[in-house]
Amino acid sequence: MKKIPIKIVIIFFISFVFSLEGENVAKYMLHLKNSVGQILKSKHTGSRSISVPGIGYIKYSETYTQTLQHLSEEGGFGKLKVTLTDMITDNRFGQVKIDNFYWTSMNDVPCLLYINSDGFVDHVGPINKKDSYLQEAFEEMFIDKNDKTDNYKFAFSQDASNYQSHKSVGDSWEAKWDSVMYYINDVSPASWLNGKSTYTLKNVKKRNGREIAYVNVFMDVTYAELYGLVLWTGYSEAVAGVGVGKMEFDIKWDIDAGKTISSKWDGFIEGDFKMGDKEFATRMYMSGSYKLVE
């Protein structure tokens, strides 16, 4: 009987063990689990800042609480009732503080969002007729400023085929995007971003009997065409520029409940800008957070 070299036996055994381990790797479905009547209350923060030579530091930041309730579908659209409260802004142009009464006028005014089959807001409107003067404000908040990373049907911007697949710890997947609108502040013209997002399932841990996923999202902004407008009583100044940038998100996701527990992000876009007769190279920094409170 011909003997099998011991080296071949060892290699076969190692391969067999790893194939068994591969079959037993845990896989998870990162799906939103919305239901009629579900209410989610969350705290939001956001900030954009830039330094301009000869003027100084310009910052736009805000905090607010959002209460979102899932309602029954209407006319083929998903329907959400949303109310923003505790709306606070901290906007500064050098040493001058800029109040934004237009944005805070939405405080404690309920509105309806109608969600299309792709998971994004199709149209929106205040619930009460007396609040119809805020129609444009709600459209800017929930449609114009929708950056196609917030999706009310699909988690983590997954396409249809990707959404059906299970994820294991260490898995990564990508989503490309172009001509995405972004607003530096509420009175600015639309800016435009192109790039891609890389999602990675970093870990899954048990917390109070629930499976919690930790997802990292790295956004590579390959092209940005930015427009801002600094505005206060008796004065306005336009800022424009082109650049590239990066953003990173760290998301804590409840797999069992199918919802985000918290998210934090920060990043920048750097390039060449112009404001009035000043031309300069600088970075615009961006950051924000989301935390489920109920």
Can you describe what's shown?
- The chain is mainly beta and 294 residues long.
- The chain has a single domain (31-292), classed as Lipovitellin-phosvitin complex, beta-sheet shell regions.
- It has 4 helices and 13 strands.
- Strands 1, 2, 3, 4, 5, 6, 7, 8, 9, 10, 11, 12 and 13 form a 13-stranded antiparallel beta sheet that branches.
- A hairpin with a 2-residue loop joins strand 9 and strand 10 (210-232).
- Residues 8-14 and 16-21 have low confidence and may be disordered.
Number of domains: 1
What is the averaged pLDDT score?
Answer: 84
* Cα-atom radius of gyration: 23 Å
- Major sheet: size, sense and barrel closure? 13 strands, antiparallel
Number of strands: 13
* Main CATH class: Mainly Beta
Please state the structural category.
Answer: mainly beta
Low-confidence stretches: 8-14, 16-21
In brief, what are we looking at here?
With 294 residues, this protein is mainly beta. The protein is built from four helices and 13 strands.
Per-chain topology:
Layout: H1 6-23, E1 39-52, E2 56-74, E3 77-89, E4 91-93, E5 96-98, H2 101-104, E6 111-115, E7 121-126, H3 135-144, H4 160-163, E8 172-182, E9 191-207, E10 210-232, E11 235-254, E12 259-275, E13 278-292
Antiparallel strand pairs: 1-2, 1-13, 2-3, 2-4, 3-6, 4-5, 6-7, 8-9, 9-10, 10-11, 11-12, 12-13
